[in-house]
Amino acid sequence: MVNIVIFGKPGAGKGTQAEFLKSKYNLIHISTGDLFRHHIINKTPLGLKVNSILENGDLVPDKLTIEILENEVKKNKKANGFIFDGFPRTINQAKKLDDFLKSLAMQISFTIALEAEDEILLNRLLKRGETSGRSDDINKEKILNRFKEYNDKTLPLKEFYSKQNKFFSINGVGGIKVISERLISIIENS
Ligand code: AMP
């Protein structure tokens, strides 16, 4: 079983690469952002609660996020492995994920960060916003807030996973295929 965490600031290409890894290694792809957006579109109680949080580019409270993630893993207990996209985003989430996986006799195999400069990401997101329908992609202030949330709360995870010898990072700039190759090389040679 292989369980991979994909990190990266908004616009780094996590979703695209997670979909590639999902089909290559037959994994279940869990994107907490997609799950929240699904609730928002369907106007569920959770969706109504988190709508403005996503719109502003803030992080959803850990308790709600961990709950939604755990439910999704439990639904797929027979999976070959998981690709976690956009989760964990805080140290607390990472600790809870370790404990939760341990309770299922599972563990994280690798965490891989897709690195790119803010200016490149900002341009990618503004472009994506023209077609994605995501309100958090069209406003520069909100995008910059998402970068800040990443720097403040998610970056410390580098150290957290480095201490477990599970942290890798790759250059997230280039063609989609080239970046996929960089990911494969880590997964198959580590
Ligand atoms: P994403 O699609 O991964 O860019 O996530 C979109 C938004 O969903 C984020 O800006 C947060 O508001 C929320 N979100 C997704 N994953 C998490 C998480 N692990 N912790 C807190 N908030 C999250």
Structural account:
This protein is an alpha/beta fold and 190 residues long. It has nine helices and five strands, in the order E-H-E-H-H-H-E-H-E-H-H-H-E-H. It has a five-stranded parallel β-sheet with strand order 2-3-1-4-5, with helices on both faces. The two termini are 14 Å apart. Adenosine monophosphate (AMP) binds next to helix 2 and helix 3.
* Strand line-up of the largest beta sheet: 2-3-1-4-5
Mean pLDDT: 96
Q: Structural class of the secondary elements?
A: alpha/beta
Name every ligand kind in the structure. Answer: adenosine monophosphate
Can you count the beta strands? 5
Spatial gap, N to C terminus: 14 Å
Percentage of helical residues? 55-70%
Backbone shape: globular
Strand percentage lies at 5-15%
Largest sheet: 5 strands, parallel
How would you spell out the order of helices and strands? EHEHHHEHEHHHEH
Instruction: Work out the radius of gyration.
Output: 16 Å
Distinct helical segment count: 9
